[in-house]
Amino acid sequence: MSHTFDYDVLFIGAGHGSFDGAPALTAAGKRVAFVEEDRVGGTCPNWGCNAKIILEAPAKVLQTIKQSDGVITDTAKIDWPKAMQRKQKIVDGFAPAIRAGMESAGIDFIFGHASFVDEHTVAVGDRQVTADKIVIATGQHSHRLAIPGKEFLHDSKDFLSIPDVPGKMVIIGAGFIGLEAASIMQTAGSQVTVIMRGSEALPAFDKAYSDQLMKHLAAQGVVFIKNSQVQSVEENGSAYTVSTSTGSYPADYVLDATGRIPNTDGLNLDTLGINYDEKGIEVNEFLQTSQPNIYASGDVIKKEQPKLTPTATFESQYIVAHILGEETEAINYPAIAENVFATPRLAKAGVTIAEAKAAPDKYDIVQQQVADDWYRLVDFESAGQRTLIYNKNKQLVGVIEISDKADDVVNALLPAIEFGYTAEQLKRLVTIFPTIGYSALGYLG
Ligand SMILES: Cc1cc2nc3c(=O)[nH]c(=O)nc-3n(C[C@H](O)[C@H](O)[C@H](O)COP(=O)(O)OP(=O)(O)OC[C@H]3O[C@@H](n4cnc5c(N)ncnc54)[C@H](O)[C@@H]3O)c2cc1C
Ligand SMILES: NC(=O)c1ccc[n+]([C@@H]2O[C@H](COP(=O)([O-])OP(=O)(O)OC[C@H]3O[C@@H](n4cnc5c(N)ncnc54)[C@H](O)[C@@H]3O)[C@@H](O)[C@H]2O)c1
């Protein structure tokens, strides 16, 4: 690469869409920098997955106790301010650790907002930085409803720092963030109401399964209001009223969980002719934008694949291999596992039930009730249903499960889905007994 540029590769954004791949560049002798306008590590460690799971952990324990039929006395309570302190203490370690890891790999950091000057130049404040290749990995931000009283709405970033458990919480939207927040806060002691503009939650999942998740959360006390259009939020003293087409709902805290929008504003993409819209930046099969030296990685890409951390990791590693010339083929995404971190969990990977039903000549669908599996009873599980999809060679190609350990089950089955192992081959696995992995693989035969 030419040394007329300051860097060989410049990443805009220092989240998983950048930092998982970048060290392989410096290991290969490339000069690399990140531009970051906020905390190193981006959404997932600071305001997403990691922050969320640290707060969810005590809620899951408490919910399991509630499911223990009195085997463990139901007097436990979450000390929310302590749970929040613990979350913050763990989270505060991530950004410095990621930065130190990158710097020890020889990567420079430039702090500030990046915007393009031309296809090889990025302005950060008064400084101009040039690079041969540039990777846009700017992620997404929360969508905000444009309604009267929008200033009283909180987004997921605020929610993950909520100082105490509100008596009444209204959540607008029944997607990943809405249902995970509902599960955590209802268990922690809030009375949660979820307002849905339609009647279906989590469109990425089969409706029969997302309906079951809502049914379980409703049994825990969450109230779902379907087909309701939010009109306004009014402040009444220290509380709020959320007015909708179906009625008014009192709240001490209102979470707007109506989706996320790619961070494309302020990058000056129009001057470079880079194509993008409200779903993200358009890329080709090599993750290059319409300017071939400029790639996009992670959540900011317009794509069919789920916008998740492991997808961003996969993309950053692909882009780095493509830049190094080690990868010349089009990106070939593996089966991507998805999970809603509620109790119970809802997880899936591979071919969906709808896809299998649409092609009966290619797929067989097997339904399994797993709630009565003795090992799940041991663990005080409350729910358990799974659908397995096989191809005509009897290879597992898809799974969806609702259960308290659906995330672990789908992870355990993922190698079979990705690499096409047959039930016969899986019989060679002598796994640890009794565990959920043993149980999951045992049901495949
Ligand atoms: C509440 C929540 C929970 C989640 N839970 C999960 C989960 O459990 N599992 C999972 O797999 N995924 C989860 N996700 C999704 C996951 O966080 C994202 O898929 C992942 O963070 C995407 O990484 P990224 O690098 O593409 O973007 P980000 O992590 O968002 O990083 C983008 C970075 O770019 C910076 N930036 C933006 N614009 C500029 C600019 N112009 N100049 C300089 N810097 C800029 C931002 O400050 C940010 O640091 C969750 C998301 C949220 C919001
Ligand atoms: N466990 C995980 O992996 C996890 C957790 C959280 C977030 N995420 C990622 O973050 C993304 C964003 O999550 P999210 O929950 O913000 O988005 P989402 O797309 O999952 O859900 C948004 C919900 O808001 C609803 N909605 C939109 N406009 C509305 C309106 N005007 N009134 C009422 N409801 C409205 C939608 O119908 C949808 O149900 C996810 O798609 C996922 O990629 C992943």
From TrEMBL:
The FAD/NAD(P)-binding domain, residue ranges: 7-314
The species this protein was found in: Fructobacillus fructosus
Family: Belongs to the class-I pyridine nucleotide-disulfide oxidoreductase family.
PANTHER family in the record: GLUTATHIONE REDUCTASE (NADPH) (PTHR43014:SF5), MERCURIC REDUCTASE (PTHR43014)
Record EC number: 1.8.1.7
A Pfam short name: Pyr_redox_2
Signal sequence interval, chain numbering: none
Residues of the Pyridine nucleotide-disulphide oxidoreductase dimerisation domain: 337-436
Cofactor(s) in the UniProt record: FAD
Sorted UniProt keywords: FAD, Flavoprotein, Oxidoreductase, Pyruvate
Protein's name in the database: Dihydrolipoamide dehydrogenase (E3) component of pyruvate/2-oxoglutarate dehydrogenase complex or glutathione oxidoreductase (Lpd)
GO terms for MF: glutathione-disulfide reductase (NADPH) activity
